[in-house]
Amino acid sequence: MRINWDMLGMSASIACAIHCAVLPLFLTALPLFGWEILHNPWFEGGMIALAGVVGASALRHGYKRHHRRSTPAMLFGAGFACLVLKEVFHTFHVALLIPAIVLIVGAHYLNLRYTSPKAA
Fold first, then answer.
1. Which residues cross the membrane (predicted)?
2. Considering its fold, how many domains does the chain have in total?
3. Which helix (H) or strand (E) holds 43?
C-alpha cells in the first residue's frame, strides 16, 4: 500500500481550513466546561507543524523522484509563511488564512499534476 503524500497534504490543508472556519463556531461552549482549545497556542502551533511536515514530505518526494520543479515548493513556502504570520498578526487572521489555504492546496495540486505520467 502506497501513501499519496499530495492527497494527504491536500486533505490536511482542507482539514485545517475546516478547523479554522468551523471549530470556533462549533466549540464556543468549551470554556464553559473548562476546556480552552480555540486560542491555545500549543494546539495552533501543532496544527501548523503538522501541515509543514506533511507538506514538506509530499513536495520533497515529488521533487526528488518525479519532476525537479521548484514551483510547488515556492507556493507551499508562501502559504506556510502566511500560516505562521496569521499566528503573529492576529488582526489579519482571515486575510492571511485564505491565501495560506489557496497556496498550500495549489502547491499540492501542482505537485500531484507534475508527478502524474500525463504531465510529463
1. 12-35, 41-59, 95-112
2. 1
3. helix 41-62
Residue type, 52: G
CA dihedral 3, 105, 61, 19 (to 10 degrees): -60
| Rounded CA separation 44/50 (Å) | 10
Tell me, yes or no, whether 1 lies in a domain.
Answer: no
Task: Tell me the residue range of the domain where 84 lies.
Answer: 41-120
CA-based R_g, the chain, Å: 16
Q: Is residue 20 part of a domain?
A: no
Note the pLDDT tens digit of each residue in 17-37.
777 776 666 666 566 666 665
The upper half-sphere exposure of residue 60, i.e. CA atoms within 13 Å in the direction of its Cβ, equals 6
- Domain contains 70: yes
Write a three-state SS string for 49-103: HHHHHHHHHHHHHHHHHHHCCCHHHHHHHHHHHHHHHHHHCHHHHHHHHHHHHHH
- pLDDT surpassing 70 at residue 90: yes
Three-state secondary structure call for residue 9:
helix
